[in-house]
Amino acid sequence: MSDDQATSEPDVLLAYIERLAGVLADSGVPRMPSRVFAALLVTDSGRLTSTELSDLLGISPAAVSGAVRYLTQVNLITRERAPRSRRDRYRVLDEVWQDAILSRGQVLARYETSLAEGVSLLGADTPAGRRLSESVRMFRFLRRELQGMTARWFAERDVERGGAGGGGASGGQDSGQGVGRDVGQGVDQGAENGSAGERSAQSR
Question: Does the pTM exceed 0.70?
Answer without folding.
Answer: no
